[in-house]
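Trying the structure run again after the queue cleared.
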Amino acid sequence: MENITKDKRYDKILKNEIAQLTKLVDIDSPNAVLEEVKCIFIQNYHVKDFLIMRKVFKDFITLYNGLYPGYKKCNTPYHDINHSMDTFLAYARLVDGYNIREKPLPVKSVVIGLIAVLFHDSGYIQKKNDNVGTGAKYTKNHEKRSMEFLKKYFRLIGFDEKSYELSCKMVRCTDLKEDASRIRFGSNDEKILAHIVGTADLIGQMASRTYLENLSYLYREFKESQMPGYDSEMDLLRNTVKFYDNIAKIKLKNELGGLFEYARDHFAKRYGIDRNLYVESIEKQLGYLTMVMETAPRGSYKEKLRRKRKKTKKTGKKGKNHD
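Done. Tokens:
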């Protein structure tokens, strides 16, 4: 009885905390995310400076859907469109929070960051002539492949070499193997924005409402790429809390300058919620994961980690529901 009570308590906490974050925008709708990012952007900058993002976003969707010349459809279920949307939105919120507390960051560099965020995991996408395995095999060097894509893309949309170079440094800040504090930048503003990209990548995915259930997808990607240290899905789940405490949290606070704190400024100013919903969601999810791993019967943990999704009703002419 004790385990059942504890399970319900954690389930309620998980549902309530993440619901607060996800209620602000329909994260499952890329167009809704784009509109939210635009609304955040124009709080600090002129709407004309966002126009380029319409084309960039269309190209991003085209790429991930397998319609971009020379590339296949994204087939990595963890590093997919949804992950990029989580990062895209987190980046916009952090930039806004920084602008609120400090001073507005330069608009051109902010836009470069928006582009870099959208394509920071494009390195997972296979080219048309690549018929072996999935894009997960590129896990260990996907950042390099992403930068190669960005080099061609920045030329295509008319951005200069300096813009491309900054985007590469931003992508490098998402690489857990690289010490972001050692990357040299042309200005402090560029460093701040690149560190925001790295921060958004971490907090965006770990605060996602589907983070826990998607860990099984992450394990499959690791397995295909022969990533060492994870012999089973259970190993990955057990190490997720340790990853946050011993790696992610330290990287966020030290290498990336504690910029995750600016999320609170955004939520306080724009929504009247004086809390860091990202940090709260991450910690609640990891608390829930710990409880599940300690109490769930062997083999039943997957069901406990799966979030209940809303059923979509199909309405006929007379309003009848069809299965």
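Residues 1-7, 309-323 have pLDDT under 50 and may be disordered. Worth checking whether this holds up in the mutant runs.
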